[in-house]
Every structure is written in C-alpha cells, then in structure tokens.
Amino acid sequence: MTDEPPAASPDAGHEIAEPPAKPDGRALAAAATRKGGVTGLSRLQVLGVLFGLLGAALVLAVAGRLDDQDVRLTFGLGDLAPSLTLDPPRFTRAVGALIALAGAAAIADRWTKRLAGLGLIAATALLAPLVLVVALALSTSASSLNLLPLLSESLRLATPIALGSLAGLFAERSGVVNIGIEGMMLAGAGVGFVVYAFVGAGLGGGALYLGILAAIVVGGAMAALHAMLCVTFRTDQIVSGVAINLLAIGITSFLRREVLLDLGVGGAATLRPIALPGLSSLPIIGPLFVGKPIFWTMFVVFVLTQLVLFRTAWGLRVRSVGEHPHAAETLGINVVKMRYQSVIIGGLIAGLAGAWFSLETVGSFEDVMTQGAGFIALAALIFGKWRPWPAFGGALLFGFTTALGSRIQLLSVEIGGYPIPSAFLQSVPYVVTIAVLAGAIGRAIPPASVGIPYRRER
C-alpha cells in the first residue's frame, strides 16, 4: 500500500489573515449620511425638498387667500419705536419664493453645500415673521402687533427649559443619562410651595425665598437618589430616571392632597420683578430688562456653567469621565465621585427650575404642573449638542413658539370662518420640538460613555 502525500493545508503558503475589525457605529452612520442612506438623498437634500414644497404652497395657495389690508409690526414702546408696514400677500409670495430657492439650493447640496446651508438658515429665520404677518392678516381683532412683549414672554417661558437643559448637561457630560429632570423639577415645585405654605405667615416675603431654597435642596436629593441607583448600583439609567419621575408624581400629589388642601392655601403671592438699574429705563427696549429673580438667576447659572465646565480643571475632569472613564481613572480621577457631584449639581439646578413654576409664576401648586418641561429640556440639550448656550437657543425656540401660540389665540385668528382650536395652538411647541429633533439640527453626538455603567478596574 502506497502512502498518499498529505493534503495541502488551505493556509499553506499564506499568512493567516486577522479577523476584520468590528465596524464603528459612528463611522457607519457618517458613511450612510454621505451616501444618502436608504432614500439616496442626504439630510440637507431632504430638507431642501420639504422647504421647496413649503415655498411652492406659500406662493401658489396661501398668498392668494390673504386680504390686501396692510398689517404693522412694531418693536418697543413710545413714538420712537420702529415699525414696519407690510402687505400680507406680497410678503407671503416673497418669503415663499425665497424659501423655495433655499430648498432648490439644498437639493443641489453636492455643488453648493455651504450656500444651501446658509439659505436654509435664512429661510428658517423668515418663518417667524411670516407666521406673524399671516396671523394678523387672518385676525378678526387686530391688524398690528408689538414684538417686544412677544420677545419678553419668550425669554420668560424659556427659563425652566433652559435651567432643565443645564441639569441634563451636568449629568450627561459626566456620562449619566438623566431623564429624571422632570421629576426633579416637579418635586422642587411641590416641596418648595409646601415649605412656603407652612412658614408664609411668619416670614412674609422671605418665605418665598425659603421655599426656593427648599426646592433646590429637594431637587438635589432626588438627583442624589438617581446617582446612587445609576453609579453605585449600576441600574439601567433610563429605568432609574422613570422611577424618579414616578416618585415625584406620587410625593407631590400626596403633599397637595394631605397638606396643601388641609392648610387651605390657594393663590399666593409670587416673587416681585427686579428692574436692572439703568438698563430698564432705556427707551424702546427698557421692558426687556425687568424680570423676576429666577429669570435673572438663569443667566448667571449659564455663565457659571460655561466657565466651570469649559474653563476649569474640575470641568475637564467631568468631561473626561463622560468620554473615557477608564482613561480618566488611570490619571487618578475618581470617576464615581465626579459623576455623583455632576448629577447632584444638575439636580440642584432642576429644583430651581421647579420653583419657577410654583413660586415665581403661578403662586400655587397643581398636580404635574411642570407639564413635560423636563423632557423638553432634554430636547433643548440635544438641540444644543450638549453645550450651554446652544441649548439656551433651543429653550428660547420652545419659549418663542409657546408665546407665539398664545399670541395667535389672542388675535382670534380664523381660517375660512373657523377659529383655530386652542388645543392645536398649545401643541405647536411640541410639534416644533419633534421637527427639530427629527433631523433639522444635523447629527448630535452625545458624550461617548453616556448611559454606560462604570465598573472600576481592579
């Protein structure tokens, strides 16, 4: 019997190839965006199609249905206040044509990408005056509108959203998802008002500030509970945030039913406005510099957040544990401690935002009175791509759309003889929020380790 030569190994004469590296999710997402994804269109081109359709509808359908009676937009008080008189059909056609051109430029973004982006930004900015002009044209009660109160109201309504976004910023920059902002705000609003109700008779106006202090403390306590669940016990951070929200609803409902109703506290005083010396007496724009304490505190907190997170060693440590916690640990940074500190600071800010509802604005407490402000604050944080001042822009967008809906309701706007339902106007801010988050802001990349439980290396 002859021996057959051994079969050649399939790897003979060849080097063993290394297994391919696992593709990076962010790289795949970027490649899909460049290639247009499933639809074959880039994000900018999809926006271009939508803007083109909107511009065509404004020119062909909306402008012809508006009356020729001029409307007037003013800004400020007194005879020196600037004003602008517009013809609604002509203005609508002009804005519609510009929006359509911006859409066409965006569709051709492979050749004019920078021009298309600028065009869409300009077209978006024109939507606000367009809505005001159309509303005045369809109004049954007024043909002029002062923009100064609208801007002032927008800033005021943006206050809790802006503070809530900072609460999320501190937590998520350290790597902890915080959807419990809503619960922290609600707990601050409820407990703060209960404290005010207990001591109000003895301290007078000082009881309001004691209530604010209590709101801040309880917000920090709820955040500490969230940090313990997420950081120490490594609970799923989404589940922990939901638990915080449900706990706040239960606690505040109990306090209202068992404490506030027994005390018989109804409408109460709110914080008094503060006028900035010198600025509040300026002609035309002076009313913009009159606001209540939490409103002014919001700007101080934003400045401090920008400085602390991006100009101090502590802020650098916070951002490092949110991006690469194990690398930060090798440099001697206590990741657990940094995450606890960041989440609790965010909770203190959320408690202050809750006090805005009950102690600065309404003067009472109702069940679930924050009405989803914490979730809108997270949307503003994503809109701002986890940076303070862009997040403030997102909060201001929500405040403006809320104020705009209220203003349109006061104008008694009718379409075809039928008034616009108030429920529709109240839903406009949420619709705008969904539209923005659905793709109008581009890709928003969170900190690399956000939502990932940290396990200390042995």
Kindly list the characteristics that best describe this protein.
458 residues; mainly alpha; 3-stranded mixed β-sheet; two-stranded antiparallel sheet; 4% strand; globular
Outline of the structure:
With 458 residues, this protein is mainly alpha-helical. The chain has helices at 25-35, 43-62, 88-107, 109-138, 147-173, 181-203, 206-232, 237-263, 293-311, 313-323, 325-330, 335-362, 373-383, 388-410, 422-440, and strands spanning 71-74, 83-86, 144-146, 274-275, 290-291, 414-415, 418-419.
Describe this structure in words.
The chain has about 450 residues and is mainly alpha-helical. Helices cover about 65% and strands about 5% of the residues. Helix 3 runs antiparallel to helix 4 and helix 6 packs parallel to helix 8.
Fold blueprint:
Blueprint: H1 25-35, H2 43-62, E1 71-74, E2 83-86, H3 88-107, H4 109-138, E3 144-146, H5 147-173, H6 181-203, H7 206-232, H8 237-263, E4 274-275, E5 290-291, H9 293-311, H10 313-323, H11 325-330, H12 335-362, H13 373-383, H14 388-410, E6 414-415, E7 418-419, H15 422-440
> How many beta-strand runs?
7
Q: Given the structure, what is the number of helices?
A: 15
How far is it from the N-terminal to the C-terminal residue, by CA?
A: 62 Å
Pick out the low-confidence regions.
Answer: 1-26, 32-38
String of helices and strands: HHEEHHEHHHHEEHHHHHHEEH
> Shape, please?
globular
Question: Which percent range describes the beta-strand content?
Answer: under 5%
Report the structural category.
mainly alpha
Helix content: 55-70%
Task: Summarize the biggest pleated sheet.
Answer: 3 strands, mixed
Structural Rg: 27 Å
Overall mean pLDDT stands at: 86
